[in-house]
Amino acid sequence: LSLFHNAVLPRPEQQKRPALTFSEFLKVFSTFFSQPSIIPIVIYILIFRLGDALMLKMAQLFLLDPIQKGGLGISTADVGLIYGTVGTVALLVGGVFGGWVVSKYGLRKCLMPTAIVQNSAILLYWIMAIVKPPVLGVCVLNAYEQFSYGLGVAAYTVFLLSTVRPEYKAAHYATATCLMALGVFVPSYISGYLQTWLGYQNFFLLSFLASVPGIIVIFFLPLTKEVENPA
User: What is the pTM of this model?
Assistant: First the structure.
């Protein structure tokens, strides 16, 4: 892929820029937080992936843990196939499909539906914790969850791109992704403690409920802005 990209990707002219002073750096940073509706934007970036961050950290452990501990007792080899092969393919397909859907219909029409599809799929793990399906059923449900995750994150990423100003694309996108990483890191850190305290069933239900505020915030986002030249 590296050789292919080296051969076919466009090569824009490189413009040498003088090193930023500290005051210029602060100016670039502050322009991100001075845009309209910045409060709901920041809240959305921080909390939208809260439910996924909780669930994904425990998903593979849930598949591996014995039934006596609330897990599904699936072998390591089968988990590798379910999560590492079928799930990865479904994730890639969902991401590509999500990008196509957003490019065709626009972010404004797609952000809410894709968010609902992505976060409602968390309930599949809650259902699996109750029903304890066979390996084939787990494979199908996990593939759908991964597809939904790819679909939702594709739209979420396009929204991050919509928050940048043309003159500060890289810096603003870096700021947005840092906020995203913070929103994922904190729930990931506490996920193990919550699962131990609640058990898998209640933990996955909590993960879904934690995703609901991120969906609600979408109503307050400025979605009239289109993404221009996201590269």
Answer: 0.83
